[in-house]
Write a structure and sequence with these properties.
20 helices, single chain, 30% helix, Urease, subunit C, domain 1, Diaminopimelate Epimerase, Chain A, domain 1, 573 residues, TIM Barrel, disordered N terminus
Amino acid sequence: MIKQLNAPILAALIAVGISACGQTDTPAETTGADLVFTNGRVYTVDPDRSWAEAVAVTDGRIVFVGSGTGAAGYVGTNTTVVDLKGRMMLPAFQDSHIHPIGAGIEASACDLNGLNNLAAYRSTIGEYAAANPDLEWITGGGWSMSVFGPGGAPSRTIIDELVPDRPVFLTSQDGHTAWANSRALEIAGINKDTPDPVDGRIDRDPETGEPIGSLQEGAARLVSKFVPGDTAETRQQGLIYAQNLLHSYGITSIQDAIVDRDALETYAALERSGQLTLRVVGSIWWDRERGPEQIEDILLLREEFNKGGLLRPTTVKIMEDGVMENYTAAMLEPYLIPSGSRGIPMVAPEVLKQVVPILDKAGFQVHFHSIGDAAIRYALDAIEEALIQNGQLGNRHHISHIQMWDPADIPRFAELGVVANFQPLWAYADEYVTELTIPFIGEERARWMYPIKTVQDTGATIAFGSDWSVSTANPFPQMETAITRKSAIDDSYPVFIPEERIDLETAIVAFTINAAFVNKHEDETGSIETGKLADLIVIDKNLFEMEPEDISETKVLLTLFGGEPVYGEMSAL
């Protein structure tokens, strides 16, 4: 029977001789769409950025976008008609840089995310250890570097007081530093004579040279290799947790920023069992301890797991530097610290120029992690070399994070066809910026932190991603910060570089059609157009009718994945 009729649809049906009960003069069923959404404020994100009132869906695809009257022709005997009651519908969001499996696992481990002081860390670590007496290692993470001041270097003695008898290994919120207790350092054989790895740093007591317990970048691997690996079941449960959370935020497509065989097998297992309800592009990790010979292994992974389904491991992730807060982001000019360091280029620029053209020719998209202005330049130089050697192959290389820019490199994104993949929630003046970054680079360079509007004005494609669990996966606070350049949580922070504020349309586009462009399925998703997959969301407010400072309070009411609800219920609208 026809369900949930609204006044415009009902009037149109009566006009063609169909009663409110769905009866006609003949008892035969009438053909119609599976779903008709009407009486909505539908922001299509099509090329004209047009609005509509109604959307019809059949077999998981959009078959009509337009007026409520026009939608009446798609209502049949078995059509479910949903009255949106003026609510806003959007294409489902896509996240261009995220770590769902690890974030899901971390949520069930010793989770320090959301805590903002040492007392809370002490309490959580102690309580978790006491509640899990049989765990061989205490693992987890999410601690903030700003709690420990410049350099973000917490001491092992803090954890030793809480867990003296078992190894503890906790990663920072941004994933670039590890915090270990004395037992973990002992198991790893780390002492004052242990040399720093080429891509990291062991923080040491300045007087004794003994390791203090914080391990920056590649130095964390000295301990992590001794941590028991996650089981297949743990990874799958982590992904299921993450997937449910992402759907609650209206996200149905992602680019997983780091995948290896274990991660790919996790996605594949969920897809085989029918539990995967995400479209996933996997960024295969580039091992910095190996050279170009690993490309053969990367090709084999793509061949094995790229089966034309929801999982497509068609990208290679190259981490080119660290982060500014611990002075490992690669900079063109030195940090304002005694050592005069310029950070750590994780992959030598000449190696980048060698391998990126090979990956490009093999049809891979390259996904760079570049924080500092030198790392951004090295990535651009490597992409330019690929264009010189191969021509434009349409692989849509993108550089993520892109925090600190040299203005000379800003036009190069548009010139080279490189997507600027920002994590917009970071573009405000929190303690990471005001206490851990600006004092060590100076105000002049700080002007070019997260220059989203300037990059957009060059004509470059802007896409957004969360980097969850580094920061929330919820797109609404991310959009609010990009528009206001202020915290979406704490109004006490000042506006950060106001000239880099963007408008709402740009923010929506960056999480929809432009993210779909990065993921190479903009012909199927990213906008509400006839023929595309019905990945749709309904939200509780019209974003265009509210103050920018309130956007973060928006809630998703319904998320559809290929026309099927994966969050919320249509009957509850």
